[in-house]
Write a structure and sequence with these properties.
Protein name: LysR family transcriptional regulator
Distance between the termini: 53 Å
Radius of gyration: 32 Å
Helix content: 40-55%
Pfam families: HTH_1 (PF00126)
Structural class: alpha/beta
Number of domains: 3
CATH architecture of the largest domain: 3-Layer(aba) Sandwich
GO molecular function, one term: DNA-binding transcription factor activity
Number of strands: 11
Order of helices and strands: HHHEEHEHEHEEEHEHEHEEHH
Keywords: Transcription, Transcription regulation
Family: Belongs to the LysR transcriptional regulatory family.
Length: 289
């Protein structure tokens, strides 16, 4: 039987002294209230109300069990309230600082249609992993090798001047080749992870560039400023180059891509981001469609 529903009807009728008024208080039809109380009485094996009078008067047994019924109804109401709050509790997700505001807003809107309320915290790769470990966020878009990731974001280099070739070979940046100052490739914090940075450094050494010609910037803004002020190049995605108004080309010696997976404290959160929200997350990352 519906013990909570029966107790709710019982408490409401006892408070009003009337089956009709009690049913209205419980927001159920009067016949439903009567059936629920009758079922409760059959369950207990005792009468709760004396039906020989016009008013719903409690029996001695009814008076004895009323306090426990009131506690059960209060607990049920508290449970429903807590469940509603838990359902609306934001799911905090650590995302790359390179994610666009519009794309994140579209992701949040798409998630809301699924009754998932997302909040975002922009952080660098190492910090995102730590935020999940310390439970400061429920999930993070983790930087992983592209072959291990759920999403892949192709990388190339971009500069102010449109390059003449369809690809940029890093060997053309060798000192003395152009007769001008040594051009540099700037690595932004999002790509300052071993599986990306170290591959670029190996190519740097293989083609004979000076160590300083591949540099890690403190921020994307700082890296972009160096590129705007010179003939330097920024290691970035196509989407980032477009946002900055730079001309992007793939790297001739290197097929490079950011990889992203999901780290989460709950498996259901990770699965939701990987599957139902896969396309919207990919747009935030600038992943290839």
């Amino acid at each position: 039987m519906d013990l909570v529903g029966g107790c709710r009807a019982f408490v409401s009728v006892s408070e009003t002294g009337s089956f009709t008024a009690g049913a209205a208080l419980a927001r159920i039809p009067q016949p439903v209230a009567s059936r629920r109380i009758a079922a409760l009485e059959r369950h207990f094996g005792e009468r709760l109300f004396d039906r020989t009078t016009r008013r719903a008067r409690l029996t001695a047994f009814g008076r004895d069990v009323l306090p426990a019924a009131q506690r059960l109804v209060r607990l049920a109401d508290s449970l429903e309230h807590d469940a509603q709050r838990a359902r609306l509790r934001p799911m905090r997700v650590a995302v790359p600082g390179t994610s666009g505001v519009r794309e994140l807003a579209e992701l949040a809107a798409e998630a809301r249609a699924l009754e998932v309320h997302l909040e975002f915290r922009a952080a660098e790769p190492g910090e995102r992993a730590e935020l999940v470990r310390t439970s400061e966020v429920r999930a993070a878009l983790a930087a992983v090798p592209a072959e291990e990731g759920v999403w892949a974001v192709p990388l190339g280099v971009a500069g102010v001047a449109p390059p003449r070739a369809r690809v940029v070979h890093l060997e053309t940046l060798r000192a003395g080749r152009s007769g001008g100052p040594r051009r540099r490739v700037w690595i932004q914090p999002e790509d300052d992870v071993p599986h990306l940075r170290d591959r670029v450094l190996r190519v740097r050494d293989a083609v004979g560039l000076q160590p300083a010609q591949v540099a890690v910037a403190g921020s994307l803004t700082a890296a972009a400023a160096e590129v705007f002020a010179s003939a330097d190049l920024l290691l970035c995605s196509v989407a980032q180059a477009g946002e900055l108004g730079l001309h992007w080309r793939p790297i001739g010696e290197l097929d490079l891509a950011r990889g992203y997976g999901v780290a989460a404290t709950l498996g259901e959160d990770a699965e939701r981001l990987r599957t139902v929200l896969h396309a919207a997350v990919g747009r935030c990352l600038g992943a290839a469609s």
